[in-house]
UniProtKB/TrEMBL annotation, chain A:
GO terms for biological process: amino acid transport. This is Branched-chain amino acid ABC transporter permease. InterPro entries: ABC_transp_permease, BCAA_transport_permease. It is found in: Cell membrane. One of its GO terms (molecular function) is transmembrane transporter activity. It comes from Halarcobacter mediterraneus. Keywords: Amino-acid transport, Cell membrane, Membrane, Transmembrane, Transmembrane helix, Transport. CDD domains: TM_PBP1_LivH_like. GO terms for cellular component: plasma membrane. It is a multi-pass membrane protein. Belongs to the binding-protein-dependent transport system permease family. LivHM subfamily. The chain crosses the membrane at residues 12-35, 56-76, 96-113, 144-163, 192-215, 227-252, 258-279. Pfam families: BPD_transp_2. Coiled coil: none annotated.
TrEMBL record, chain B:
This is Branched-chain amino acid ABC transporter permease. It is found in: Cell membrane. It comes from Halarcobacter mediterraneus. One of its GO terms (cellular component) is plasma membrane. PANTHER family: HIGH-AFFINITY BRANCHED-CHAIN AMINO ACID TRANSPORT PROTEIN BRAE, HIGH-AFFINITY BRANCHED-CHAIN AMINO ACID TRANSPORT SYSTEM PERMEASE.
Amino acid sequence: MEQILLNGLITGAQYALIALGLTLIFSLMSILNFAHGQMYVLGAFVTYYVYGKLGLPFIVAIIASGLTLALIGAIFEKYLFNTVLKRSVREESSMLLAAGTAFFLDSLILIVFGEKQRSVPALVDGVFFGEDYGIDLIIPYNRIVIGLIAIVLIVSFILFMQYSKPGRAMRALAQDKTASQLMGVDLDKYSLFGFALGAMLAGVAGSLLVTITGVNSGIGGGISIQAFTMIMIGGAGVISGAILGGFILGLVEAFGLYYLPGDVTYLTIFVCLMIFLTLRPQGLMGKPWG
Amino acid sequence: MENKSFILKVIIALIVLLIVIPSVLVLTQRNDYLYGITSVAVLSMISAGVWLTFYMGRINIGQGAYALIGAYTTAVLVTQLGLSFWISIFVAGFVAAFFSILIGIPILRLKGVYFSMITLTLTEVAKLLAIALVPITNGPRGITNIPLPGELSIFGLTLIPDFATMENSKIGFYYLAVIAMIITFAIMYRLTKSRMGILLRSLQQNEELASSFGVNIAYLRVISYAIASFFGGVGGAIFINLTQSVYPTTFQVADSINYMLYTFLGGLAYVFGPILGSFVLYFSWDLLFIFKEYQLLIYSGIMIILMVFLPNGILSLRFKK
């Protein structure tokens, strides 16, 4: 019981990190970034090479993953999404572009990195045995460290959005584009910044993943669907919603996979989600009608 | 005057589709292109449903789910109950429409991206259901060896010959798919010109306003979503008779996304957009086969470039507003 709970919480922390990036991009530009899962995989591969192959410290690998993805995100935003949003009659056109970039990254990853499953050595060795302290828990120290890093990153992201100038500007844009532009917030600049930040979060989350489960080229699409599920649970475009959604999905998955076969778990999650959304379309924390 | 030129265009299109293309392809023995155009017809029929959902202002990424429902319905009816293929494709359409009404009543209240996201998971649900319902669907192994469509006759008069006795069953499928496509788009065209079409367009622009004028928006949404899913179900049914097998992965999330892409690429403002979109994307995918592992890379590259330069669809080139 405690075991499943803790597993769920650690997975949830990583999930929340993925959902945060997706929700940030969505709230700023109303883009459903289908390529989010692929960005995550890319981040994992950067860490695989920097940490696993070159043997540099893990902190360097996280930063490298984050920066690489931030750069890719910035390029996507500046040359693709921004252009399309300006030229297109309807906002939804960005969806095609997002799907296109997802396919593009997918095949690029496959060509560059191949289809082999890759993994890296653990950050810290050893396993925590709860029996010595009277609790029914067995957990590798590695997972605990990764979970803690994820939580630290989430907290620093919240603090950044809450108190820094760019954070405040982005929150203002998400709330009301016209009003915040009139107050002198530079839409283009902060859209670019926000997209890069969102992509960076995906990369960092991928970087954490590779130390636990490894990575292969094909998982991007599945991760994207999971990320969408999370922000639907919590409410799209809301930071607290993304975090809550991530933890809920992590916990439900941990319990489901323990008591049910894998396919049935996901079926149950999706069916519950649909019923939940019909009762509360905006998710747990979302504004009505998004 | 305008009416006359429109009728002329329709006649030319029908002649090209029903006589010119098949005879040229049969004479030149290009069975691969014949199969390609058949697939494009089916794909554009399924995408028509996406277009219709868009027409009332919703982006539907769940069309694959209804295609899968239609596919399994036909497969089960034909292989286990021995029902005629011709009846079962209609049953498939109605079953898909029935489920879309059940699902649509709650989820059609969602707007914008919320609707899109939930339809995205809908395809995943359909796939997982197909895997889990082993007694009906045979689980991940799927249903194979679906027989070819049999003959259809009324009062002893053979309307459609048995596909199995045909010399070239591919041409039979070509006609089946193309005629189904023509009927679909005729219905769609008529629909957009009708009172309902105008009402749907008003939903696309402002639902609250439409509602305040006394339009029953909930009813309209569910009905048109049901029509859209009907197309999806029939399309799926025809498709699996072409391949003669169905698996839980026959229609999956990537396919649902593709249907959306076909519709977008053709141009959302035009009824015939899905046909052009699926034609361009299907054949560019096919032609890029020579690049082997770079196929998807170049294909998605083309898609991105098209989108950046023609964000309102290919048809927007011709019809400057």
